[in-house]
Amino acid sequence: MLTKYNIIDRKLTPTTDEKAQVYLFTNPTLEEQRFLVTEYQIDEHTLASALDPDELPRLEFEPEHIVMIYKRPKNYSGKDQLEFKVASVGTFLFEDKLVIVMAEDIPLFTGKRFLTVSSIKNVFLKLVYNAISHYVEHLRIIHLISEEIEDKTTESMDNTYLHNLFSLEKSLVYYAEAITANGFVFEKMRNLSARIGFSENDEEMLDDIIVENLQCKTQADIYSNVLAQLLGARASIVSNNLNLLMKKLNIITISLMVPTLIASIYGMNVTLPMAKHPDAFWMLMGLGLISVWLVMMFWRHKNW
Known about the structure:
alpha+beta; 58% helix
């Protein structure tokens, strides 16, 4: 699907103009992909990379345009089961237009940063800035979910909560890797800003992007380390609770073995002491209870 925009009165405005300034291709069809390859001379491999969620971010210079592929969070849905994923976005910066290619429909031009735009290079940078903000929002959500699951794991030993924590930990690892890879591209952009043609204001925004991305990476690492330690602690708690449960079961089993032995002996079809005594049953029951009490006292004395 193709959506076109023009910069009118410092705002991005949808348009049907054949010579628009910003072209957004969402999950392009084969016909649209052929159009991008033939009309804009975009390399087929590069175009496929922009639609590949596993592609690494990179910055390349072509004769007619500049290519930047970066990673941004995917829209979360309930079927993902607390697994947050990343997607690739391809941006192709020409002298007079910006072409954006991505595999899923994500609202790109939202937030206060797009209230005003000055040029297509400004749009180019603000897209990246919004992606970092998206990461920060997802990290905050992951942190809140992990705290909620942590409270639930103290009350339940259900493996579902552990699986949820593993999904969040996996998501944080992918986020940290994507943010780090984006950071390398942003640093390269800063070093080659003159070649790209950034203005002084654009360079200041790029510096802010690099700082924000570094802070976002630090935040992702902190949450990942905390969650990893939480998983390790939770596994130790589960193991310790299992040991305590087995200990209690062993105490109960051994406590019942002695009276069971007494009852078994007096249940044999042979002549035994007190066989004719009228209170033999109650005497044997008392002996069994005394044996249980002695075993319990022994365990308590040993602090077992």
